[in-house]
Write a structure and sequence with these properties.
heterodimer; A: 257 residues; mainly alpha; 10 helices; B: 165 residues; alpha/beta; eight-stranded mixed sheet
Chain lengths: 257, 165
């Protein structure tokens, strides 16, 4: 009984280690291809369009509503302490440092990550990747790299747009609806937010962009070539991305705070 | 052809919007001011207590911001906190007997340095040290002083009451 339990535990530990190793090797392989992929920038631009420009609507809408909720909740909370003028700084810091990068990364995993994973998985299932190899075209170089780089480049920009729209959303609710003074709102925000806070958000979103894109292309590229396998790869992309983003967020916050 | 054009257009719009958002966040939301760091001149002031003053805090005269705190360090020759301020070059007529104090904006606001002009005919220049300073008020000290004086009053009252009985 105990022996079988330990064997099972060791087995799952081995699988986890193997997965981490496989991810690392895949990541190193992608990193080696970065300079060459940048030479064919047209392909990357196309993927920036797919991952970034097409995610714009959902990011902007979510940013607006997250900002508005933050304005509402922040106002209610701060009013209890009689310092509702601090709403601007509270909303801006919350959006820049936490909500902007994290929510954008989660939405990005759901919107762009799934698209990447299912596209690559379907290419695998319909033997398109094998056909490329037959023609001596490296599928990593031609298909995976541009998608990875497109995601990595889009993510910080999406997070910045999210934070900006969110701040305007908070301003909309706080100033127009709840009657916080406009000047107080902006001046308190400006005096509380430092350049380092903005950079913290940018660094976070860059890391999340790398993580989400890597997970999406890895899961898609290594998916089981069946209809079920592609579906599973898509699901795994969202699940792993979400957990990894939240885990990385805690670690990055602990390091940078 | 038409499709690649819409892709390029969409991507261009997205990238432009992204960088505009970053630029907005860096310049409009933060208190960092670009290009002003090199201009102006520096003044020094020593304080017994700087309280919660931080680099980047405003330096003002009559409520008008004329510069920023550049650095705060401890000076072991005077055993005081040495504050370096950068004053914008537009405000170069501060009398050399002006005084500097650390004040708090509102009850919960950040701290800033307020400069009160003196009456001298000569003005402060780059690297000058301000003669008269007033330390930050630490609220805890104030409260404890108040409590101790209350307690002392009660102590003083008690013997008086005893003698009348």
């Amino acid at each position: 009984m105990l022996a079988s339990l330990t064997r099972e535990l060791l087995q799952s530990l081995r699988i986890a280690l193997q997965a981490i190793g496989a991810y690392t090797l895949f990541f190193v392989r992608l990193l080696k291809e970065v300079p060459r992929a940048l030479l064919r920038f047209g392909l990357v631009v196309e993927q920036v369009h797919n991952a970034g420009a097409l995610s714009l609507v959902i990011i902007m809408l979510s940013g607006l509503f997250v900002g508005m909720v933050l304005g509402l909740q922040g106002f209610d909370l701060l009013e209890r302490f009689g310092s509702e003028e601090s709403l601007g700084s509270a909303a801006a810091l919350g959006l820049l440092k936490e909500l902007g990068p994290v929510v954008t990364a989660l939405l990005f995993a759901g919107r762009a990550g799934t698209a990447l994973a299912s596209e690559l998985g379907l290419m695998r299932a319909t033997d398109q990747l094998a056909a490329m190899e037959m023609m001596a075209v490296d599928p990593i170089r031609r298909v995976v790299m541009p998608r990875f780089l497109g995601g990595v480049l889009s993510m910080p920009l999406l997070a910045a747009i999210f934070s900006m729209i969110g701040i305007f959303g908070a301003q909309l609710v706080g100033v127009q609806l709840m009657g916080v003074d406009t000047g107080q709102f902006w001046s308190q925000m400006r005096s509380a937010v430092e350049f380092g806070d903005v950079m913290e958000g940018v660094v976070k979103s860059c890391v999340f962009g790398v993580a989400c894109s890597l997970i999406a292309v890895y899961e898609g590229y290594h998916s089981v070539p069946t209809a079920e396998g592609v579906g599973r790869a898509t699901t795994r992309t969202v699940v792993i991305s979400s957990v990894v983003v939240l885990l990385l967020d805690y670690m990055l916050t602990a390091v940078m705070l | 052809m038409r499709q690649t054009r819409t892709i390029e257009l969409g991507t261009g719009l997205f990238v432009l919007l992204g960088f505009a958002a970053l630029f907005f966040l860096v310049t409009q939301i933060t208190n960092r001011e670009f290009g002003l760091g090199d201009g102006g001149y520096r003044l020094l002031a020593s304080f017994e207590q700087v309280g919660g003053l931080k680099p980047g805090a405003p330096v003002s005269m009559s409520g008008v911001t004329i510069g920023h705190v550049e650095g705060i360090a401890y000076d072991f020759t005077e055993y005081k906190a040495r504050v370096t301020m950068r004053i914008d070059s537009d405000y170069d007529r501060i009398p050399d007997d002006s005084d500097a104090g650390i004040f708090t904006a509102g009850l919960l606001g950040g701290q800033y340095i307020g400069i009160g002009p003196g009456g001298s005919e000569t003005f402060l220049v780059e690297g000058d040290q301000m003669q008269f300073t007033q330390s930050a008020i630490v609220l805890e000290n104030l409260i404890s002083k108040f409590l101790f004086s209350k307690a002392a009053e009660q102590q003083a009252d008690k013997p008086a009451e005893a003698s009348t009985q």
